[in-house]
Design a protein that fits this description.
Arc Repressor Mutant, subunit A, 3 helices, three-stranded antiparallel sheet, 43% helix, 89 residues
Length: 89
């Protein structure tokens, strides 16, 4: 999978947010707030192909967490991005 081109995280009121616009004429806008870890993953993976396993390995390597915790967090991060249509296969 890959983060869709053209999407950017922006600072809004002290938060890192991604705003994904839906279809014109329909209110399908999604807003996701990113904590520091989620923003770090976004920045590291922007313009790269990646898998769940890649994200898990990055989290385990960069942070002091076990692989089960890293996998649960990685799945949650990916699921949120998929739900707002921010990833492409």
């Amino acid at each position: 999978m890959k983060i869709k081109e053209g999407l950017k995280i922006r600072p809004v009121a002290g938060e890192n947010v991604l705003i994904v616009q839906g279809h014109v004429g329909l209110d399908m806008t999604k807003i996701i707030s990113f904590n520091d870890t989620a923003k770090w993953l976004w920045d590291e993976l922007l313009n790269k192909e990646f898998s769940l396993g890649d994200v898990v390995q990055m989290v385990v390597t960069h942070f002091d967490v076990d692989s089960a915790t890293a996998e649960a967090d990685a799945k949650k991060w990916i699921t949120q991005l998929l739900e707002c249509n921010a990833l492409e296969s």
